[in-house]
Amino acid sequence: MQAQKLEKSLLWEISGNGLEKSSYLFGTIHMTCDASLDDNIKIALDNTTLLVLELDMDDPNMQTEMMKGIYMKDGKTIKDLVNEEDYELLGAFLKEEIGMPITMVGNIKPFFLTAMMYPKLLNCTVQSFENELIKVAHEQEEEVLGLETIEEQLNVFEAIPYEDQVTDLLRSAKDNMAYDKETFQKMLELYDAKDLEGLNTMMMEDKNLSTTKHKDVMLDNRNENWIEKIEGFSKKQATFFGVGAAHLPGDNGVINLLRKKGYTVKAVL
């Protein structure tokens, strides 16, 4: 079943297929200048009794668990992955951007080093939709759960070869993040326009990112694994799901996979 073209919306109602009450699916962006929740989202949060994000973000052990998975396996370091010249370049870049010598952070997976620089892509104080959603859930005295464990999420970054991860980092260093900033701006514009189709096209076409090359690991396989969990939660109670917007569109996106299972998934406009 081909995915139909999606309307411009980040919030979707899941109903039918034996569900007693509607659940909601909201596409987040993990980093933005303004994470205010609009009225439709607030109403959906009022009408649900559980918040489920990609990870259980109010789990007190989350940071500790995360830290366990940020290092490369088998004592590998960036020095093993690049030539001498590129190593020098990365050293200067990391010192400049995160204020640490490469000898101290060289054993961290390149993906996580790239992520440390994400806040620099925005010229503002970074806000997150996940945090805003958690605030509301706590006000409503509701639980926050996750669709995957930290271990499962970390395995994603183990499945993408370190060589590919370091390619992204090196590209950022070579143009001093100019490409990253431009790409992120484009992504934010599409997100603010609620254009899931546009985001999907952008993901498919960006040949520079290892995440595009490994879309199956980053998105498709995870979406597939989430469906059963989304069904389980929704059958028990009206649930509000908040996951990265890139997970929603496309043939292997969460919206299409739920529709294939017989649910009605419609845009809240």
Structure keywords:
269 residues; alpha/beta; six-stranded mixed sheet; 13 helices; 49% helix
Q: Could you characterize the architecture of this molecule?
A:
The chain is α/β, with parallel strands linked by helices. It has a domain at 11-71 and 123-158 and 178-267. It is built from 13 helices and six strands. It has a six-stranded mixed β-sheet, sandwiched between helices. Strand 1 and strand 2 form a beta hairpin. Helix 3 (84-98) crosses helix 8 (162-174) and helix 5 packs parallel to helix 8. The mean pLDDT is 93. This is GumN family protein. Pfam families: TraB_PrgY_gumN (PF01963).
Helices and strands in order:
Blueprint lengths: L10 E5 L7 E6 L10 H8 L3 E4 L8 H7 L15 H15 L3 H4 L4 H7 L12 H11 L3 E4 L3 H10 L2 H13 L3 H15 L3 H10 L4 H4 L1 H22 L2 E6 L9 H7 L3 E4 L2
Parallel strand pairs: 2-5, 3-4, 3-5
Antiparallel strand pairs: 1-2, 1-6
Helix pairs in contact: 3-8, 5-8
